[in-house]
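Page 47, continued from p. 46.
Same chain as before, 63 aa.
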Amino acid sequence: MTRQSSALHRLRRLPRDARGATAIEYGLILALIAVTLVPAMIRWGGANTTMWEYVKRFLSITN
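Result:
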């Protein structure tokens, strides 16, 4: 098998090989999840802190 025919063989096989495309798709899904979760967690974290501050003040008043 010559070098040219080996390269041609790899080019013909390329459309059937979906491993790279699958990895890219998983990467894009992960990026989308991160882009949506990080702001939501930051926003929820502030609300969560406010809630625990309220509980702390409430408990200190009752003691």
